Amino acid sequence: MDRQAHFVIVGGGTAGWIAAFIIQDAARRKGLDICISVIEPSSIPTVGVGEATTAAFRVLLRHFKIDEFEFFRKTEATFKLGIRHEDWRRKGYTYYGPIDDPHQVVRPPAGAPHDYLNVFAIAAGRSITDMHLFGPLLEQKKAPYAKKADGSLIPLGPFHHAYHFDQAKVGRFFASKSKGVEIVDAVVAGVERDAESGHVTALTLDNGQVLAGDFFIDATGFRKQLIVKEMQADWISYAHELPVNRALPFWLDIKPGEEIANYTRAWAQESGWMWQIPTQTRYGCGYVYSDAFSTPEQAKAEVERVLGREIEVRSDIRFSIGRLANAWVGNVLAVGLSSSFLEPLESTSIHGTIVQMMLFADRHLKHPKGMTPDERADYNQRVGRQVDDFRTFVNTHYMVERDDTPFWREVRANRIHNETKTQLARWQTQMPRHDQFPDNLFGLPHIQTQLYYPVLAGLGLLDQGLARREMEKDPKLRQFARETYESLVKEYRAAASQALGHAEFLEIVRGMA
What we know:
With 513 residues, the protein is α+β, with helices and mostly antiparallel strands.
């Protein structure tokens, strides 16, 4: 019988604790005898600058039967129903990207393609977002909840929403919910490895302790302490096609009585774009820019000019955009920022951590001595493709009309990836379809057409004539789509009129404690 296996997670925070929770749960379901340690040094502070998620995070909370309202209270979280893109296509132009999928609630005629409502909207020259429940809620900054006569809260629809939060608080929240996970308050000072296999066998800590382990998860963020510094994993750069490489984070307070946005604000600027992510008390903000076109001093001055106020810069963050060629090397697996980093435009970081850990736990979790090179290769191929798909989706956002600054002229002329170009060329002959996105993740959530359509429509990249020709091939489907679209718009506008304001919802939830 195998002895108990020791899984050591280096680095806490959101990625480390998500990994601990998912592995612990999967081990219990599989009947595996493992113990988990999280090395989380209190001497290394975490600066919360605001983080956004995808709906996969809500799926995670439900999986662990974590009370969502408690999560709101403990982490100062807010709703994220989508993204507000300002000044991307051209200055003065705004479009929303809601994250719900109206196709989910309508039973289509037999044989209808998954995206028929999207195709109809483009063909009819109608707004993609109007047929989403989250569309009017985004525009009105409302919560996807109403209040019943007895004062209780009722959700307005079946769709999963996402969250904004201070990631430092979320890491602590998951730590407080952990059961049977050892927390080691120390810094890794050295690494011991097997001379023959190259596997990590133990970590020496700054307190003199030697922590032996069988499998190690690198959640050390940009430091990549195990996966790169020890295991020498190669890095694939996306710096060419994702052209921002520096961030200037700051906070903006939310004034008493002010309505709170339920979206991530992605606001294009002269040399990049600005994020604004609401928690319950302040906006975590930052200017993500290319230092080939702006200095930190110029970036700060630009932000202050745009906002009409001074800001206090929290730090100067420089980063490499890209991914590991192999996120799992030997007995070390990297998650979170150790594994990949894309600019935070579509909240891919935490989403990637959740999906990658679920993939690992479901398909590969066993006693480490039974893990095979073929399993590692399979995992690395699927995760690599996942991040490449993220890259292409984010790169598509740069297919803009703007040419008013050197940065935007450079982006338009030279920074569009070949995969992006190939995909867009295909969509000039056939509208985007669900089945064009192969499932490499065994049904786990991934970027597909429900996220692409609002962006493609918002940037003017879809051909109305093509959409009309496709709808004309099936007049019955076209009529069904028209009636369904109009019904959804009417229903969701009525629902939005009953919805609570975002700030009012959060106040009610805080009062439940």
